[in-house]
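Annex B, item 7. Sequence and structure tokens for protein A, then protein B.
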Amino acid sequence: MRTQARRLDGIPPTVFTQMSALAARTGALNLGQGFPDEDGPASVVQAARRALAEGRNQYAPGPGVPELRAAISRHQQRHYGLEPDPEREVVVTTGATEGIAAALLALVDPGDEVAVLEPYYDSYLAMIQMAGGVRRPVTLRAPDFRLDADALRAAVTPRTKVLLLNTPHNPTGTVLTRAELEAVAQVAVEHDLVVITDEVYEHLVYPGHEHVPLATLPGMWERTLTLSSVGKSWSFTGWKVGWATGPAELVGALLSAKQWLTFTSGSPLQPAVAEALDAEAQWPGELCRSLAGRRDLLVAGLADAGLSAYTPEGTYFALTDISALGWPDGRAFCEALPERAGVVAIPAQAFYDDVEEGRHLVRWAFCKTAEVIGEGVRRLAAADLRA
């Protein structure tokens, strides 16, 4: 008897679950999965406690509680000059991951093509396939991981309906420039594409670089769904509270799918997230300044261990190429790493269709404390990392 639907064929378990389980089983330091070692603002946690005590424990409205939708609108206006209508152009999601799922299920019919930057967050692969879509990867190639506008144009065909964009980009740390985004906008307008932008690392951009939401470019608001969340920039990854903004037609389509996924979630957390967006608006900037130092600590430590890293422009991840160490691929390296060094990392090949391009890339997270990062790179420097 066949027990699994064919729509799941070929979708492996998420690599994050596998490698975090390996860290737990071996007691290794987890420099792989991107969750911080420290929580976000205490005032926001207190706001969640108040909401619990005040009885906000039943279903929230499907689109999200009104004060959070209003706070999201203010956030977009304050940072980017966008003014989405909280009633029609904002919806709260169960993290950006549900936003991605709902957007793709709402917008992609079987056989529709989805152009997507590669490497990609692995939920993109899963949800494009579950929606019946066809991936059209556009590879950000080492060593600089820049967007090739010609490769983007070549990936778009008459069957392409959606472009799925991630900037700041996980796992490369690339922040797309205004010029690169203008090339994206040109392709989207020429081919009448809907663009889904995953901007969860929007506030984690390092000096010399700038996050420009695609929706702010001429002609792009009306065709762009912008996704983000409180998880990364305010260090509440376990709360799973995200949002989508955009024109009412696209937000309404996303909501039409989202209502059959979770309907709603995190009722007492939603007013607390509104508190984060309004009262703790400066917190992500402080976090980013701290992360810049931890980024430099990790990159330097990896280099000392013989693992030269590409310095990320944003996010809290860095990639290394381990091909010189003699391992057949990054997965073999990462599976051996807990025993060799007491550290866990993520094999980036899980994020590629282009197997050779990603085979020897490994992702490291620096959202950990400086003490954890320091211990991790000391262990790596002391270990024999060759195959």
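Protein B:
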Amino acid sequence: MSRDDTFPVPHGFLWGVSTAAHQIEGQNTNSDWWHKEHAAGTHIKEPSGDAADSYHRWPQDMDLLAELGFTDYRFSIEWARIEPVQGEFSRAQIAHYRRMVEGARARGLRPMVTLHHFTVPQWFAERGGWTAPGATDLFARYVEAAAPVFETGVAHVCTINEPNIVAIFGAIDRLGVGAIGPAGLPLPDKDISAALIDAHRRAREVVKSISPDIKVGWSVATQACQALPGAERISAAYSWPREDVFVEASRDDDWVGVQSYTRTRVGMDGPIPAPMDAERTLSGWEYYPPALGEAVRHTAQIVPSVPIIVTENGISTSDDARRIAYTKGALKGLAEAMDDGIAVRGYFHWSALDNYEWGSYAPTFGLIAVDPATFERTVKESGRWLGTMGRTARCSGTDET
């Protein structure tokens, strides 16, 4: 593939954007995150409220994505809506998400459905969350109940989004916000990590029993750990429980998702903060486009036989020109990895919309801006630029990777 300002999207390559239900739907009142947002004494700056009102406006959102040229759309379904009370499943909510699948296909968007994206029903949290007895059984039961959403017309299912971050959230809940240090996140909770790996495998079995042709995987947050000279073993020890153990758990999957935004440098004493003069995003992360290519290569080293899908990559910024520049740099590294023979099957940008970023609306990741008062959507130049590549691929008929 040639190296220029565009990414030559191969025919059949998944070229899309990602969203998460809680972050865009609004009024997810039966979820644990809704309760956290309204509890006193937390680190959460503002509640999600109506979010982008995408629960009602999803047809408009999909219209825009299809018009821009994207061929794929990754979205999550909300367990707390489908099973608001333990053992009671909402046929209306299952039908709602099924309409989204059908709506995506009608617009020429291939849907990737994520079954769990950070949130759980409040009743599940109250009974002890992932480490309570029978937790993975309950998740498997939910997946089976949600089968009408994805059993036809969906080629890819993501079981759990960023299980390593879910386990880190668990550690923070146990240790307190002070566990977040200037140089990195705490270790994921070991018991939650083990439960999530089991939940993933149980969910994969359920999905395969419903439709064996669905390609099942999960997505892992990857930090592109860089070992300073002499710190290779320390870096490996840092990365293993935070990322690599979850990548290893995908060895029998149809694909593994890479979600990359920045890097972590690791020295002899552990992770090192980014330089004081480094450019930072609105999330406070170092602006580092090569992270994607490095994360993809690292993942391929751990599970060389498992195809990779980039399920998230993006930047929170108010300067859309920097978003385009960042994405160009990230795609350059991705294309070079593919040139070297790494099996990458798709790229999903985070995110379709400016949305609720787990405590604040300030970090804007979207290719489409959303007015918080009127919910009016405004496509950014980055959305037009990135979507055009998908339209070009549709017309070119180039060989599939």
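Comment on protein B: The chain is about 40% helix and 15% strand.
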